[in-house]
Design goal:
It contains 9 helices and 10 strands. By secondary structure, the chain is an alpha+beta fold. The protein is elongated, with a radius of gyration of 44 Å. Keywords: DNA-binding, Isopeptide bond, Metal-binding, Nucleus, Phosphoprotein, Repressor, Transcription, Transcription regulation, Ubl conjugation, Zinc, Zinc-finger. This is Polycomb group RING finger protein 2.
C-alpha cells in the first residue's frame, strides 16, 4: 500500500510567491539569465527603472531588459492548481476591471486575459466538487472476462457496458474499484483495475489528480476503463527438509576424513612390519597403564615402508 504525504501550501509558498509583491504568481514571468520568476506586472514595472534581477543582482540586459523575460505558463498552471480559488478570483477581478474600464480592454487579448475563461474550462477542481465520469470495460482483456463468465464467477447478464457516475473529486481509484467489485459481485480471487485509456491508475490517485495529470479539459465526462484479472497469490516458501541419503553438512566428511587419517596408524600398530616383541617389556607407564613398547637400542634406526598405500615406519 502506497503512503501519501500531505504537504501544507505554506511549505511551498517560497516557490509560488512573487518576491516583489508578496502574493502568488499571476501571469508568472521568468528572467532568462537567472531563471527567477515574478508576476508579469511586477517585473515589468521594476525593469522600467532597473537592469538587474531583484533577487540575485544578475544583469538582465544592458539596454533593453524587457527582451530577456519570458512568460512561464507551466509555472502559472502549477500555481493555479495548488492554490484553491486563485484562478476563480483572478478571473473575477479581470472581468470587474474591464467592466469598470471598457476603454482599457485589449482587442487582441485572449479570453483568459479578459477573465472570460470558466474554472471548469481551465481544468482546475476542488475536493468537494462533483466530477462526471464514464466507466466501461477494457476490451483488451476480454478473454479474461469471458473465461470468468464461463466459469460461473461472473453473471452473464452483467455484461460490460458504458456507465456514467457522478463522484466527488476527492474520491480515490481504490474506492472506485471497490464500488465496481460490489456492483458486479466480483469474487475475491479476481482484482478490479481502473485505467485511463490503456494506462493503469494508482490506487491512491484521486479524480482531481487524474484531471491534473492527464489531458482532460472537462468538455465531457472523464473517460475511465476497468478490467477484471486474476489476483496474484503470494507463494509461501517452505524450509527444505534434507533426505536421509543426502549429506547436508561437512560433519560426515570430517568424520570420514578422520577415520582415514587414523586407519594407517591402526594398521601400522597391528601389521607385521612393526613386529611387536613376544613378551611385554618394562617400558614407562602411560596414563597409569603398562606400555608394551620396546625401548630402541642405541644403534637402531627407523625406515619407511608403505602399508595399503599409506606411509608407516618400521624398525631395522
Amino acid at each position: 500500500m502506497h503512503r501519501t504525504t500531505r504537504i501544507k501550501i505554506t511549505e511551498l509558498n517560497p516557490h509560488l510567491m512573487c518576491a516583489l509583491c508578496g502574493g502568488y504568481f499571476i501571469d508568472a514571468t521568468t528572467i532568462v539569465e537567472c531563471l527567477h520568476s515574478f508576476c508579469k506586472t511586477c517585473i515589468v514595472h521594476y525593469l522600467e527603472t532597473n537592469k538587474y534581477c531583484p533577487m540575485c543582482d544578475a544583469q538582465v540586459h544592458k539596454t533593453r531588459p524587457l527582451l530577456s523575460i519570458r512568460s512561464d505558463k507551466t509555472l502559472q498552471d502549477i500555481v493555479y492548481k495548488l492554490v484553491p480559488g486563485l484562478f476563480k478570483d483572478e478571473m473575477k477581478r479581470r472581468r470587474d476591471f474591464y467592466a469598470a474600464y471598457p476603454v482599457a480592454e485589449v482587442p487582441n487579448g485572449s479570453s483568459e486575459d479578459r477573465g472570460e475563461v470558466a474554472e471548469q474550462d481551465k481544468g482546475t477542481l476542488a475536493e468537494d466538487e462533483i466530477v462526471s465520469l464514464s466507466i466501461e470495460f477494457h476490451g483488451s482483456s476480454g478473454e479474461d472476462k469471458k473465461g470468468a463468465v464461463e466459469n460461473g464467477d461472473l453473471d452473464r447478464d452483467k455484461s460490460p457496458g458504458l456507465r456514467f457516475l457522478r463522484c466527488p473529486a476527492a474520491m480515490t481509484v481504490m474506492h472506485l474499484a471497490k464500488f465496481l467489485r460490489n456492483k458486479m459481485d466480483v469474487p475475491s480471487k479476481y482484482k478490479v483495475e481502473v485505467l485511463y485509456e490503456d494506462e493503469p491508475l494508482k490506487e491512491y490517485y484521486t479524480l482531481m489528480d487524474i484531471a491534473y495529470i492527464y489531458p482532460w479539459r472537462r468538455n465531457g465526462p472523464l473517460a475511465l476503463k476497468y478490467r477484471v484479472q486474476p489476483a496474484c497469490k503470494r507463494l509461501k516458501l517452505c524450509p527444505v527438509v534434507p533426505s536421509e541419503g543426502t549429506n547436508t553438512s561437512g560433519a560426515s566428511e570430517c568424520e570420514s576424513g578422520s577415520d582415514k587419517a587414523q586407519s594407517p596408524a591402526g594398521t601400522a600398530a597391528t601389521g607385521p612390519a612393526l613386529g611387536s616383541p613376544a613378551t611385554p617389556g618394562h617400558g614407562p607407564a602411560l596414563n597409569g597403564a603398562t606400555s608394551n613398547c620396546h625401548p630402541l637400542p642405541p644403534g637402531a634406526r627407523g625406515r619407511k615402508t608403505t602399508l595399503n598405500g599409506s606411509a608407516g615406519s618400521a624398525l631395522s
